[in-house]
Write a structure and sequence with these properties.
The protein has about 190 residues and is α/β, with parallel strands linked by helices. It has one domain: Rossmann fold (3-Layer(aba) Sandwich), CATH 3.40.50.1820. The chain has a six-stranded parallel β-sheet with strand order 2-1-3-4-5-6, sandwiched between helices. Helix 3 packs across helix 4. The chain starts with a strand and ends with a helix.
């Protein structure tokens, strides 16, 4: 599978590179753009400052530019938290998208969004301070109405970015379960 993996609000941290290597070891081609141009954050607050300084529109432009050379072959878009939001926006706008793997984050969407049975898998903490149960229920219904085939996996007691071993949110058991399930999802999408 050809995967475009977007980092979280913390920037291109070692955990994102490690995730990419895990996916490569499973036989996938993985592209990991640095939307922050080398900057990383030590805290979520610092990361939000970097994100706000760059701006949402510019981040999306950078993501589109990174994906464009690879999208002709059909991409699986994936991302961590903020990166999940970016991945969702790109996948819903790319008629050749093969799938969408969301780790810790979603995005709102336009009412008239339509996709043709796009496979979507979301992994999220339960509860998650950034992805409330009400939000996730509404998001799920919107995605289904748009035509996506959605699976949601919730991890009780895990912190928001529970797959990042460099953060306090890390939950090893939840992270391993996430990767096992996500790799199965990617395998199900075919070559």
């Amino acid at each position: 599978m050809n995967i475009m993996l977007f980092h979280s609000v913390y920037g291109l941290r070692p955990a994102v590179r490690e995730a990419a290597e895990r996916l490569r070891a499973a036989g996938h081609e993985v592209h990991v753009p640095d939307l922050y141009d080398g900057r990383t954050a030590e805290s979520a607050e610092e990361g939000r400052q970097v994100k706000d300084e760059i701006g949402t529109d510019e981040l999306l432009k950078r993501a589109i530019a990174a994906a464009a050379p690879h999208s002709e072959r059909g991409l699986v878009y994936a991302g961590f938290s903020l990166g999940g939001s970016i991945a969702q926006n790109l996948a819903l706008g790319d008629e050749k998208a093969r799938g969408l793997l969301l780790l810790h984050g979603t995005s709102d969407m336009a009412e008239n969004t339509s996709v043709d049975e796009l496979p979507v898998q979301l992994h999220v903490a339960d509860p998650d301070p950034f992805e409330s149960a009400d939000w996730l229920n509404a998001w799920y219904l919107q995605m289904r109405r748009a035509g996506a085939d959605v699976e949601i996996y919730r991890y009780p007691g895990a912190g928001h970015l529970f797959t990042d071993p460099g953060l306090a949110d890390y939950d090893e058991a939840a992270a391993e379960e996430t990767w096992h399930t996500a790799l199965g999802f990617l395998d199900s999408l075919g070559a």
